[in-house]
Amino acid sequence: MPKVAQVIDERCLLNRDLVAQMLDWTGRRPRRGRLYRAFFATLYYAGLRPEEAVALRVGDATLPETGWGEFLVHEAQPEVGSRWTDTGDVHEERDLKGRGEGDTRTVPIHPSLVALLREIIKEYDLKPAALR
């Protein structure tokens, strides 16, 4: 029997306006809201997996003053729980999904995300090796 494609109700999908509202709401949360906004914006605008975004450092991003930027994605750090890692850390360092050991990939960064990340880096005085 042939495989039938699943029907997706497009009303349930995220759209540009809904994402903008969600990012705005997240950014207004107290304490770490602006950092979470940057994290979720990275997932949306760059299409990264959460475990790839968690592994990014400031030095992995090229952020021009205007226009498109890029990430050099080089590892993933999925949350596996401290009981399951050799180091006791919550995240485990892994190679990129579907890539060879040590392989990297370059990902374009939408201008909106470039501007947001530049603001966050300046606001928190983040250095090239800084996480998130």
UniProtKB/TrEMBL annotation:
Alphabetical GO biological process terms: DNA integration; DNA recombination
Bias-annotated ranges (Basic and acidic residues): 86-103
Region of interest called Disordered, as start-end residue ranges on this chain: 80-103
Domain Tyr recombinase: 9-132
Keyword line: DNA recombination
Alphabetized GO MF terms: DNA binding
InterPro entries hit by this protein: DNA_brk_join_enz (IPR011010), Integrase-like_cat_sf (IPR013762), Integrase_catalytic (IPR002104)
Name assigned to this protein: Mobile element protein
Species whose genome carries this gene: Streptomyces zinciresistens K42
High-level lineage: Bacteria, Bacillati, Actinomycetota, Actinomycetes, Kitasatosporales
